[in-house]
Design brief:
It is built from five helices and no strands. The chain is mainly alpha-helical and about 160 residues long. Helix 1 (about 5-35) packs antiparallel against helix 2 and helix 2 (about 40-65) packs antiparallel against helix 3. The chain is elongated, with a radius of gyration of 41 Å. The model has no long low-confidence stretch (mean pLDDT about 75).
Length: about 160
Amino acid sequence: MSFHEISIAVRAENRASATFRGLALDIANLGAYFGVLSNEQVKAVSVMFTVIRVVNSLSAVAKTGAAANLIHAASSKAAAVATWILNASLAAKITLLTLGAGAVVVAAAAMAALAMQTRGAASAMREYNAAASEMPTYARSIRRAGEEDLRRRGIE
């Protein structure tokens, strides 16, 4: 196939793709007008038709000659690389989300353990204070020399 024939095929494809795009936008706008499609759906439909148009354009170019086959192979490799990159980014996102959730769980467990230890210490202190309040004050402390004399005078 000559270069002239390839250029004629590409020009015809360009005209057809513009018509196809206009038709796709009309369909999406009618769907939005009648309330069948939301704004996000209209965007999705126009993106879908754009992708279909691009794929049809690429297939028409690919059918026109050997040079187009090289372009098609390169675009397939680029799509594969893009897919690998997307998968890697999704895996990284999942990993980071899992680590974040794990950190929250570990922090919650540490806080629960601290709360239980604090509750146990407060309970032990309450019990000690209750037992200590039942004993006379002179039995609770170490007596120093001369302390008995102070107690006899009423200083305690």
